[in-house]
Automatic annotation (TrEMBL):
It comes from Pseudonocardia endophytica. One of its GO terms (cellular component) is cytosol. Residues 12-366 form the Enoyl reductase (ER) domain. NCBIfam families: Rxyl_3153. This is S-(Hydroxymethyl)glutathione dehydrogenase/alcohol dehydrogenase. Belongs to the zinc-containing alcohol dehydrogenase family. The keyword Oxidoreductase applies. Keywords: Metal-binding, NAD, Oxidoreductase, Zinc. GO terms for molecular function: S-(hydroxymethyl)glutathione dehydrogenase [NAD(P)+] activity; zinc ion binding. SUPFAM superfamilies: GroES-like, NAD(P)-binding Rossmann-fold domains.
Length: 370
């Protein structure tokens, strides 16, 4: 089978459209006809060289589609099923899955290397073998994934909206509800209100936060945050800190969630300073792997019982939480429709990322043609 895919050959260069050969599904594998793919900032980190992957690599890790075929031993899905791709696989039996932490499943160790379990490379082309971002490569018409990355959903759910729950929605929502453990009546600050931050806003309000302060330098994103449930929207971290103290009679925010495009020591320090005693900072944003972006007073953390912690995939369990969030969408308790700012064909993928960098999109979505 042939597929057209958007491939990164070298960091710092635009993606190339390449025709590739797709091998049939092997043991435990699933052939997917991708219908939609979200333009997430994590792929941009690879394009810009912040995250290192084995190249060439078909990008795209947020997506949905239809199962075309399955290999021997597959039990989670069947041909014809509609699925959302989970950017972290969940084997179900490693230590982390067995203790309810599918977001750090051991199978996620190789997602930036691009091959499937057993070092299988289903994609090949002019440069030889091609990897797939997060073992998915959703910037392709077709792909072969492991069944542990496939989450079956109801056929009547719109696949363009469902695609977003494979990464951004779940990551942001879970950062508030699970990682920050937002409680009713708390004041929460969210730094960065793009495709992840807006869902942290939604999660915080759903959990009962009385004040949700959105911080973003882009006016359009501040306005969007208010539409998605923020009670206040400001441009800078200094404004957020002072507003939180004013709203809480000097106490400060209970929780701060960092979902900016690229982590810096400045935004981490802003969040740490804005929380009050016993407050929690949750780091969701990424940056260069070896760059130190936490420069804080350990003494202050000790004396005021402040906590700073990381969160991957919103500390969610995708096999349970992806269907759960889509259930909230069906009930009208989770906004997904308004997240999609623009749609693109695959040949416009670089334009989509230019628009993301320019701050013009909440979420861009590729609509695949077959």
């Amino acid at each position: 089978m042939k597929t057209t895919a958007a491939v990164i050959h070298e960091a710092g260069k635009p993606l190339d459209l390449v025709e590739l050969d797709v091998a049939g599904p092997g043991e435990g594998e699933v052939l997917v006809r991708y219908t939609h793919a979200g333009l997430c900032h994590s792929d941009l980190h690879v394009m810009q060289g912040d995250l290192a992957g084995w190249l060439p690599l078909v990008l795209g890790h947020e997506g949905s589609g239809v199962v075309e075929d399955v290999g021997p031993g597959v039990t989670r899905v069947s041909p014809g099923d509609h699925i959302v791709c989970s950017f972290i696989p969940s084997c179900g039996h490693c230590h982390w899955c067995a203790t309810g932490q599918q977001a750090i499943c051991d199978m996620g160790e190789n997602i930036m290397r691009g091959f499937l379990p057993g070092q299988r490379w289903p994609l090949s082309g002019p440069a030889g073998r091609y990897g797939a971002m997060c073992m998915l490569g959703t910037f392709s018409q077709y792909g072969v994934i492991h069944e542990t990355s496939a989450v079956r959903i109801d056929d009547d759910l719109p696949l363009d909206k469902a695609a977003l729950v494979g990464c951004g929605v779940t990551t942001g929502w879970g950062a508030a509800v699970n990682a920050a453990d937002v409680r009713a009546g708390e004041t929460v600050i969210v730094y960065g209100t793009g495709g992840i931050g807006l869902n942290a806003v939604q999660g915080a309000r759903h959990a009962g936060a009385v004040h949700v302060i959105a911080v973003d330098p882009v006016a359009g994103k501040r306005q969007a945050a208010l539409q998605f449930g923020a009670t206040h929207a400001v441009r800078t971290g200094d404004e957020a800190r002072e507003l939180a103290r004013s709203l809480t009679r000097g106490v400060g925010a209970a929780k701060a969630i960092v979902t900016v495009g690229k982590t810096t020591s400045e935004v981490v320090s802003d969040a740490f300073d804005a929380i009050g005693k016993a407050g929690v900072v949750v780091l969701v944003a990424l940056g260069e792997f070896d760059t130190r972006t936490i420069e804080l007073s350990g003494t202050q953390a000790t004396l005021w019982k402040k906590t700073i912690r990381g969160s991957l995939f919103g500390d969610c369990n995708p096999t349970a939480d992806i269907p759960r969030l889509l259930g909230l969408y069906r009930l009208g308790d989770l906004q997904l429709d308004g997240l999609i700012t623009r749609t693109y064909t695959l040949d416009k993928v670089n334009q989509g990322y230019d628009d993301l960098i320019a701050g013009e999109n909440l979420r861009g979505v590729i609509v695949h043609e077959h």
